[in-house]
Task: structure prediction
Amino acid sequence: MFFTVLALSLGMAQASAQNAAVKSRQAVAKAQKYIESVATNDILRHASFGVFAMTEGGKTIASFNQEKRLVPASTMKLISSGAAMHQLGADFKFTTRIGYSGEIKDGVLEGDLYIVGGGDPTIASKDSIALRRDALFAQWKGFLDKAGIKKINGMVIGDGRYLDGPIERDSWQYQDIGTAYGSGFDGLCFYENAIDMKVTRGATVGSPVNVLVSYPSLPWMKYGFTCKTGPAGSGDQLYMFSSEFAPYAEVRGSFAIDRQPKTEEFSNKFGAYTCAHFFREYLASKGVEVTRGVADTRLGRVRADLRSLDPGPYAAKVDDLKMIGMTYSPALKKIVRECLLESDNFYAESFYRILGRRLHHSAQADSCNAAISDVLKKLGAPADDIKIDDGSGLSRSNYISPEYFVKFLSAMMDSPVFEDYIETLGQPGGRHYESRLKGESEALKSRVHLKSGSMGGVRCFSGYIEPSEGSKADAIVFSIMTNNLTVSAGRVDPIIDRIITLLASDN
Result:
């Protein structure tokens, strides 16, 4: 286990403490000197650059602009996931309930079947931790069988009311919210509310890009494709623009003529409706007829026709539904691990929004912000000098300092869930961090646990370094943040790797 206290004799402990003290002084000298030297080089001179590293025992190892509040990008997920695990527990599970309105007569439901979402972000996900779609649907159908429902003389309604408010943050960039990494959601989703499209370049520069919807097929959607084939070297600049207000989306931008075919992941704004649609199809394949199609809920109304301006009739109150079954997500610690290793924005936003719903009875942004602040205060890392705007780090309105990251990560070490939390972080040479600390020893890399954050002009890493000897107090907690970069990550990463190596090599 991480940071297990070793059973040492008094003499060995004293020797270890002396060695740790010497190495700590060496780390301070080497890391600090290097940080100060690179802060004025051509790569970082005009950027915003901050570093803070401290032992769990409270000794500062390195510091440079440690109080400067910077955009954290995906390192924000360390905070949202840690707060969720601390508040809800590592084994917390999201729920989804199946219920109905009306009455069952001779095997026929004279009413509507509701899929009542509880914020589970893994429904029909292609993620390996998620229950496969048909296996989940089989469980839901099992609830109908037990209730004696053989036909539904009504609709299947995807009910996402549990997580109220806009499905995405209004501070997210316009082009981001059409991509899969910018998918928003309410209480019920499907396939992480993503749409896969196969993309192939055109025959010549300026010709249309070939785009084919792969999965899921959404028969209610209309698509426009104004994207063109770009010149060699221009890369993938495809973006889809859509909203939750109408079933229309447009793919714009360019796809370079020298790019190989790929599957592009865009955003589906109708996750609850999609879930209802595919469950109805599953029921039909099993001989259960649904006579009136599918719908979702919006603003308390049943929306059957996504193209209609008619708000529709009021949905049944959830408390008035007759519940016939409940399914569960994987344990939170498993979702967090996938979230941090894959840097999954969708999962991270589910943590942020479920905290708002459970602590302040709303998933609106102000409630979510208040909830996460409550948890951080309880954890011993009050968010007085930072700004949190979402759970994923997609917003450029998050402002966190390296000093705060160290404070938070240090506080997590005293949380009852820490042993599970540390297992969710990545390691150099491991999954998605294969190129980190390349050339360093496996022994050194095995002591580093970290999370990266990256977006245009931003490159950040925060995490822990286990001590090679000594006690938990000798562990290093670190945060390295760069903003306003005008160079590629490939030029910044060697600097960050060197800082981490210097911190780890003398610890």
The CA atoms of residues 94 and 329 lie 5 Å apart.
